[in-house]
Task: inverse folding
């Protein structure tokens, strides 16, 4: 669990610093992801409402089910889901920019590989699936589309983490 939280915080920091310049979340009215961590699934909503006096009101919510009691683990899970909802971005902007979504191919350099695997349908969207390897170990995979700024799906196998874009609305 400690490794999971550290990886999550690292991914969040890199995403906020690197990816924010690429995607302006305020161009969206809302973004919804289904996030699964260690077999538990939640729906994560980011909603951006313009205020009449200027600025935005941001709603960040997590909806999930529990089986019998609301214990500490159930209490902590929403925090992990919200922290990881940003992880649809593979957290390494320079690697995202290296892939050619029109003519995907494998990139390899300094023990790092980005492998195009296949086209994949995620909900109502279709994109190209890539995997990021370091020293021949798969660290994460993601699905991206040239038509949508948002990452359609990300998987981090070592953490049993999957985030899938369910819906969004641009302004």
Result:
């Amino acid at each position: 669990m400690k490794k999971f939280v550290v990886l999550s915080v690292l991914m969040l920091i890199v995403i906020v610093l690197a990816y924010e310049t690429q995607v302006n979340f305020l161009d969206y009215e809302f973004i919804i992801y289904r996030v699964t961590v260690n077999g538990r699934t939640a729906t994560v909503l980011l909603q951006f409402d313009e205020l009449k006096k200027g600025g935005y009101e941001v709603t960040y919510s997590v909806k999930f089910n529990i089986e019998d009691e609301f214990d500490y683990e159930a209490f902590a899970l929403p925090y992990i889901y919200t922290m990881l909802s940003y992880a649809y971005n593979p957290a390494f902007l320079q690697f995202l920019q290296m892939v050619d979504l029109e003519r995907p191919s494998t990139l390899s350099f300094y023990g790092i590989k980005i492998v195009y695997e296949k086209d994949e349908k995620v909900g109502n969207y279709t994109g190209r699936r890539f995997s990021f390897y370091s020293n021949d170990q798969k660290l994460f995979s993601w699905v991206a589309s040239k038509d949508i700024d948002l990452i359609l799906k990300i998987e981090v196998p070592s953490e049993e983490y999957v985030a899938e874009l369910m819906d969004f609305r641009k302004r």
Notes: The chain has three helices and nine strands.
